[in-house]
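Bug #77: duplicate submission created two jobs. Keeping one. Sequence:
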Amino acid sequence: MARAIPIRDSLDAARAEALHCRACPLWKNATQTVFGEGRASARILFVGEQPGDQEDLAGQPFVGPAGRLLDRALQEAGIERKATYVTNAVKHFKFEQRGKRRLHRKPNSMEINACHPWLERELTLIAPSLVVALGATAARSVFGRATAIEKNRSRIIRADGHAPDLPDVLVTVHPSYLLRVPDEDRAAAYQQFLTDLKLARPYLKG
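Kept job's structure:
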C-alpha cells in the first residue's frame, strides 16, 4: 500500500482535496465529505464503514450514537481517542430517504474502491503501527478483499503475515452492530468488543 507522497503532502492537504472528490456518485446526495480526524502521529488508526446521518451533518467521523459508544468503549479499554486517528473506508454518507429520515445503506464494492485512495493516503501519511478495522466494510477496504469478522477478530494480524507494506491489523465489529444486538445479548457482545480493543492498547507506546 506504500506509495510516493507528493511534496508538501499533509493530512490538511488531503482533507481539502477530498472535499471535491467526485470518484463515485455518493457526493451528490451527501451534505459533505467526512474525512478522518485525530493525531497526525497516531500509533493506532481506526477505520469504520462510512459517516452516518449525524456525521454527515457535522462533517466529523464517529460523533453519532455509534461514535459515542466507541468513545465509551475506548475509555474503558484504556485508550484515549485523542491519541488515535479515526476515519472511514467511505467518506460520503450513503442513505435512502424515507420521509424525513435518512436510512443508512451499505456501500458497494465500487464505492469502497473509489474511496480507497483516500484511506491509502491517510495510512501513508500517518504510518500507524496498528489499524483497527471496525466491521466488514472497513476490513474489506484494509485487506482489499472480503474478510470474515468472527473468524478473524480478537487477535492481532501481523503485517509480515498478510502484507509487508501494511501495519498490523486488528479486526472487530463496528460499534453500530452493538446497537442492534438483542437486549439479552448486548452486555456479552459489548464485553467481547472491549476485549478486542484492549489488544490495541500496547500500540499506544509504539
